[in-house]
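Reviewers of the previous submission asked for a worked example of the structure-prediction workflow described in the proposal, so we include one complete record here. The input consisted solely of the amino acid sequence. No template or homolog information was supplied to the procedure at any stage.
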Amino acid sequence: MSENWSQLVADLERLLKLRAIPFGMKLFERREDMAAIPRIAQCRAVVGLGLAKDDKWRSGEHMVGVWYSTPEDSAAHQAAMECVPDGRYEALAVAPLAGGRLDPPDIALFYATPGAMIYFINGLQWSGYKRFDWSIVGESACADSWGRALKTRTPSLSIPCFAERRYGGVLDDEMLMALPPDNLAKAIAGMEALAKNGLRYPFPQYGIQQDVRAGMAVSYPGRSS
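From that input alone, the workflow returned the following structure tokens.
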């Protein structure tokens, strides 16, 4: 059953005050299947296309003296990246999520501030609680977000790297979440439940001159010791 992608995006924008549109990614085992989708873009190594992860890529030689001190450091970085294995897929399509052209996408992605991200995570954890553990590969942070999400099909949060910020226009206060699209409705339902408890984004500052006990008593009535 197809999701109402435009409504999901509208809910995310309303709850998280997003400044950039959410988008989707979908891998295709046959290039011709992707070609049937209008107005798409595609990428390579991190998503397992074009057998790009050859010995030269694995060596990381292009990063020696730029991001890493030695060939060993660069090779260790390449080995640490979360990537889709080569050989299975021929193409990747990227499109705005609200348009529904990738119905369904393999993953959905959005940029948001750290405050919005923790609120989204709170929504994911509202029911069926699960702890999330994420790592930071350093430069090539796309491996932490969409590389990991496409490989593991699990929510993946990253701190965007130099290349994303310099060449991709990612703002200094933005993070990137990539996750299977069925997690969006779950998170939205969780955030709506939190909002009913008075817990909404953006978080209003209480003020350092105020007695924190008065504010906490509103969220936790009858629970103070």
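The two ends are 49 Å apart (CA to CA). We consider this example representative of the routine output the project will generate in years two and three.
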